[in-house]
Amino acid sequence: MRFDNRTTESWQQADIDHYLHPFTDYKGLAVEKARVMVRGQGCHVWDSDGNRYLDGLAGLACVHVGYARPELIDAAAAQMRELVFFNSFFKATNKPAVALAEKLVEIAPRHMRHVFYVNSGSEANDTAIRLVRHYWALEGKPEKSVVIGREFAYHGSTIASASLGGMPPMHAQAADLPGFAHIPTPYQFLTGRGLSEEAYGVLAASWLEDKIREVGPERVAAFFLECVHGAGGGKFAPRNYFAEVQRICSKYDVLLVDDEVVCGFGRTGDWFGAHTYGLRPDLLCFAKGVTSGYVPLGGVLVGDRIARTLIDKGGEFYHGFTYSGHPTTCAVALANLEVIEREGLVRRVHDDTGPYFARMLASLADHTLVGEVRSVGLLAGVELVRDRATLEPLQPEGLIGERFRDLGLRHGLITRPVGETLLLAPPLVITHAEIDFMGQALRRALDDFQGEIEHGTVPGIPH
Ligand SMILES: Cc1ncc(COP(=O)(O)O)c(C=O)c1O
């Protein structure tokens, strides 16, 4: 293979010299150097020094069916030989795009019968923003254009999706467009202690109603939410929150958009988080797991209410991408969904591996550094604290969780710290033995971490 004839150091140097990574502090990376990843198989990946890791993050919450699946690879090769690409712009279509649309409609919430294709989760959310504003304009209410998102939400990194998201450091870097408003997200561990889950759910949903009233219902187009915050750190809403926000959206005629870029395609133990949490969204954004990350594809499932207006009123929707409905990515998505179905992965997560994963996480809850564990299906947040008895936070905030990633790697496990929360989202094909391994690696990493904190030897942290 043409990548095999160079040393790790040479790749790392060239990486520093030429490759600007996403979401990276370039000065820091130049000192620490990147891990050069070279191979994946099943739930494992290898670096260029031959170290093997269990991928507790499924790439980036996307490699649902695991690495190196011949079914997906063969589907790409076959479609590339047949018709690698053709656009869908000028009254042309292609078979994989249509067949995938049929398949997505089959697994989606029942009132969603159309799909718009894009290349990523960010573009899916951008598209959803365009769609809700276009919808209201077609309905003769163009002033209904403000979009409400939540703090801690991550909807992507285009200027519009980042403006919608709830990440202040992103807003500060020229991603803070007008026309967006934000409300706090339910985060009971921090902001709802002492309240029953139900009472907190009602309270958190009331923040949406307050914001709609403040902006004026006649100006609010839509409310966007993720069923579970992924990049925002595995934060879960109380169960009753979803029915409440749905009720509030109907009351004020505000569209509901469900960003399932992380939650979709079995991650929560159902095809979509909307099924798990009983949501009836007007639009549903997806990406990641639709192709298990083998090729980039995203999209928006469109509910009947919006689809009917688009189709009945007509007029061009001035939006789309060269690769919308790319035949090869759609063929890979079809092969991926076939694997998920054939292997019964959604049911397996729901009935078997999800509960087994939850028990593994619960077994860590006695550790001094673990403040809370929460999960649904194969998606989890582990809240790290200085001492579980007092729930005192780890200091310095945001920095120290990073150290945990390295300790996990030392024990052969890939995790993702988000502030002081660990996000875990392994491939859906993970086995009991691999979940056991995760549990052991997490406990060892927690023990090492506690030792470093007690001895004041956490690298890079002054004591
Ligand atoms: C919920 C959610 N929405 C949108 C995105 C953006 O997706 P992408 O990175 O494919 O643009 C992400 C990415 O992690 C996400 O987690």
Kindly summarize this structure in a few lines.
This protein has about 475 residues and is an alpha/beta fold.
Report on this structure.
With 463 residues, the chain is an alpha/beta fold. Helices cover 43% and strands 17% of the residues. The protein has helices at 8-18, 26-32, 58-61, 70-83, 95-107, 121-138, 159-164, 168-172, 188-191, 197-215, 239-251, 273-277, 304-313, 327-342, 345-362, 400-410, 432-455, and strands at 37-41, 44-47, 52-55, 112-118, 146-150, 180-183, 220-225, 228-229, 235-236, 255-259, 283-286, 298-303, 370-376, 379-387, 392-393, 413-414, 416-418, 421-424. The N and C termini lie far apart (47 Å). Pyridoxal-5'-phosphate is lined by residues 120-122, 125, 154-156, 226, 230-231, 259, 261-262, 287.
Annotation keywords:
globular; seven-stranded mixed beta sheet; 17% strand; alpha/beta; binds pyridoxal-5'-phosphate; five-stranded antiparallel beta sheet; 463 residues
Layout of secondary structure:
Blueprint lengths: L7 H11 L7 H7 L4 E5 L2 E4 L4 E4 L2 H4 L8 H14 L11 H13 L4 E7 L2 H18 L7 E5 L8 H6 L3 H5 L7 E4 L4 H4 L5 H19 L4 E6 L2 E2 L5 E2 L2 H13 L3 E5 L13 H5 L5 E4 L11 E6 H10 L13 H16 L2 H18 L7 E7 L2 E9 L4 E2 L6 H11 L2 E2 L1 E3 L2 E4 L7 H24 L8
Parallel strand pairs: 3-16, 5-6, 5-7, 7-10, 10-11
Antiparallel strand pairs: 1-2, 2-3, 4-12, 8-9, 11-12, 13-14, 14-15, 14-18, 17-18
Helix pairs in contact: 4-14, 5-14, 6-13, 10-11, 15-17, 16-17
The chain binds pyridoxal-5'-phosphate.
